[in-house]
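MODEL INPUT / OUTPUT PAIR
PAIR INDEX: 1
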Amino acid sequence: MSASHGVQRVAVVGTGVIGASWTAYFLAQGLDVNATDPSPGAEERLRQAVAQHWPTLERFGLAAGASVDRLRFHDSLEDAVSVSDFVQENGPERMDFKIELFRRMDAAAPPDAILASSSSGLAISGVQSGCAHPQRVVLGHPFNPPHLIPLVEVIGGERTSADTIERTLAFYAAIGKRPIHVKREVKGHIANRLQAALWREAFHLVEQGVASVADIDTAIAHGPGLRWAVMGPFMNLHLSGGAGGIAHVLAHLGGSIEDWWKDLGAPSMTPALQAQVSEGVAQELGTRRTAELEAARDTLLLNLIRAKADTGTLD
């Protein structure tokens, strides 16, 4: 069994932003990749994206045998998955589309292959409903961009086997990811639900005129966001309590936290609010280009991930 738990060839189905990022990461881990996407010009765009991501992945450190030459693009979905050990699907977020796509993949993939979806919100129980072998269908939801961010949320559907869950967790961990097992299907999984809670209040504060878009971004990026990048919310609360830890914090601030919860807003995504936030982002961007921000973000992420690994203490 290899370091990737028996997986040598991965099929990446759908090669948009997420699929291309996954492709680059799998290649950097020394795996063979069969990619497929029916969109015109998909292969050219994929190879350009992989080339763009490759210098960053080289800085991370490539696995033995890693090469962009191990990428094969297939016009046929069935051809791409038929000789793959693991499938990472990244198609449109429509249940009817996913059901048919997974039915086709299930009919063509080898019996032992795992079929994983990157879906950010759909329930895997629905996705697997048209498959003859639903026990091997699982959700493997990455956090964007997958070639940098370690998190992968693994969720089984009603008919997913425990063996598939274990094998999926083991595979992602073997290639350097930080998979978590979400034990029950919920809308948006875990990370997106937590993000949504913050987004809701951020939009509410803008709508109510409490703060500008730029000031809210500053509040997070130069405040709690710095701590959240190091530890999660519960560990941060624990450290805030000093010697008494989280029990001390909850005993003394639990009532205040509950009062804040009751005062949180529930805005509607009206056209007016969308325009207000969009204008605020445009003002915050100024003359900076998105590509410049992405490059700076990626460099900082790379340095942070390396620094966290070097401590040997942080989870």
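PAIR INDEX: 2
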Amino acid sequence: MGAQLRVYKRRIKSVTATKKITKAMEMIAASRIVKAQRQVAASTPYATELTRAVTAVATGSTTKHALTTEAEKPTRAAILLITSDRGLAGGYSSNAIKAAEELTGRLRAEGKEVDAYIVGRKGVSYYGFRERKVTDSWTGFTDNPTYADAKAVAAPLIAAIEKDTAEGGVDELHIVFTEFISMLTQTPVQSRLLPLSLEKAAEESGTKGEILPLFDFEPSAEDVLDALLPRYVESRIYNALLQAAASKHAATRRAMKSATDNAGELIKSLSRLANAARQAEITQEISEIVGGASALADATAGSDR
């Protein structure tokens, strides 16, 4: 019994230490969510107004541009998948990867080749383990992305959309990330960044149904779109990175809270087992003492006769 009690005590001590760690991680994630939410809110107006400007230029001109013009027969697409550098976030990264796999399958069914661009070690590891080709990847900043990180990610994607497919370019650019809706809800999103759908862009920028003013473009509408293309892609990727970071922190908080609660329940269960083992040990000791006393009393009574 003594050995069993020691085992229970060791397990209780181990689970208690784990509970302290998960509780600390839960609190850290909760504090980071607030900062991430503020960054998302701060980046959204810029992205909205930029989309509004692009919509105005595209609507007010007949210029064919990679930003707004779809290829007659698209044959190649790029997918930017945003995952996490770290685990302990429940199904956050796996859900985003699943959404990217679904999108990849749909594009291939349409007869398009797919180039994969990955953000986050979880996505890179997933593709590496399956020996799948990754055109480019980035790691190390998913918890706290900056605009410089977004520019670094956007650069090869912009170069790919501007190239001809015969030279390794792409006709379409898609992004898969996890949208932060609330502390309890984060949803994987599949979105096509380029070519820009004017109807969808008008809806996102709040100009759907509005009569946009006419503009004169200097030096030309094409030059204006050339200038707006990198800004548009960078802003959308930056917003997606921030949404993904907020979602990851929320998922971590939820996972760590669940782990903390489970650790508490396990400690209670182990404590009951330890108490039962201790009671059994005490009962056995009492029985041995009573049995010894009874045997001694019988031996003494026998000698008296």
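PAIR 2 NOTE: The chain has a mean pLDDT of 84.
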